[in-house]
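Reopening this ticket.

The earlier resolution said the output was attached, but the attachment link was broken on my side. Pasting everything inline this time so it's all in one place.
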Amino acid sequence: MLRAWAQRVSAGTDAAPAANIRSVTLDADGAIAIAVNGTATARVPCTVETATPIDGRETFVEMARLQGDGVVRRSAQRVLAGTFVKRNGIWKLEHTELNA
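Inline output:
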């Protein structure tokens, strides 16, 4: 479920946790803990790519914007945490969070 969520965020069909996040790629299998109360949590290492607009009105910034860029792209290692709940026998993704 987390992999599908990350793919939807990267495709732009699901809301990202922050406005500047452009993609989330899971780097490995996650650790999952299932509780007897019908909830579960998962933690998965991931790579998050961001694109932050460059501030300013300087000529080079305006030129970059006109050429379709004007953003600073970064990549960072994070941990994607997900909370799941089981309703009517079906697991649903309830909440996601990116941690440092």
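Reporter confirms the inline version is readable. The chain has a mean pLDDT of 89. The longest strand covers residues 71-87.
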